[in-house]
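Q: What structure does this chain adopt?
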Amino acid sequence: MSPTLDAQHIIDNAPLSFVQRRAIAMIMAVSFFDGFDALIMAITAPSIAEEWGTTTASLTPAIVASLLGMIVGAVLLAPRADHYGRRPLLIAGVAIFGAMTLCAVAAQSIEQIIPLRFLAGIGLGAVIPNSYAYGAEYAPKRIRATVVTIVGASSAAGGFLGGLLASAVMPSLGWRSVFLIGGLFPLLLIPALLRWLPETVQFLTLRGKHDQARSILRSVDARAVGSFAAPLTVPLSREGTKPSIKLLFTRHLAPVTLLLCVVFFSAVLLILFLMSWIPSVLKDAGFSTGQAVFASSICNLGAMVGGVALGARIDRSKSPYHVLSLAFLVAGIAIVVTALSLGSLVVLMISLFVVGACAIGTQMCVNAVATEVYPAWLRATGMGFLSAVGRVGSVVGPSIGGALLAAQLPARTIFLLAVIPAIVAAVGMGVVGAVATSRRRIQAPADALEQSDLVETEENSGSGSRNR
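A:
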């Protein structure tokens, strides 16, 4: 048998190179703008409602349309990255959500903005899971969770700075200026992505593009690659096996997939329940529009700090699931404090910072854990599916929030109801940790993806293809 080079081993053991740093910086920029765009309706809703002479609750369909689009993008587009590559899907997604956000500048009614937000959501749905997969594949294992959470923190930074920008420019320039910025800058990023966003080494290797992969690896660690043209491999590659959602539910992956579905659904429901309506709820509670939008930004600031800190902790932890379970529990406690502190702006800001750190920040780390669950050839499919499940929660969350606002419930009651999904997420991660401790299989379920699972799945689908 001819000698081979393990591409993943080279990335895991080499120092972080300039090529990796640049690739991660590019994906951070993508994540920043998707975070800005994902919250743009929540940020601008009070101003739009005021201009159009309606209520913020009446804008619920526009917020939900964006989230439905994310589900479509996550299910239909994101998994295509396992077939066509991370790079083209990421660039296409940025082009879609940038263009549709820019078009919304001309919207004159709710009916006009709804389809534009749906189409923008499709682009976001393709970008978000592939951003995490891309970051994970360019990061060495020793800092992978940290890098993935930094990618997530970049999204939170987009939401944070978007809120600050909106509070600064909307009073004088109106809400359309926010959509102009949110649409134009992602489009201006595309030339840089075309030049400096390389395809991942793992995908190139799986598709037999060894010369391209080897060229990138030489930039990572020239000594490890050497000058000879040895074939490249990646762990758990499955030649001839078509990635599909069905493979996520083979007997070794099914437990972790189902448990992560529960966590993604409840955590994203919680996050979007809060982030979509915090400005409106706080304004109804007596705060000014500027204070309400700033409070939303503080939550995103907490997400950035908490996500990176938790990611670094997970890289050093032998039981990351229990760390994440505890963090979700702390988020629930912070939400209770928020509900009880509506009379104090200072306490409110502190509690919302903790909510951001332990709800949004923890979900970033759940994404980091999830990228480790699935092998490279199935990663975009797995992350896309989990993202879609989370986006179902993201539709349910704002819809519930809009209904509660329409029912004119007190702000305190609305916040207290948000504790429920935080508890569900905490319990879900705790169960994952318990299963990992008892079976030692979920800790790296990709390693347990047996040949028999794949053969059985392919036979059931009638493909008749054989794995090596």
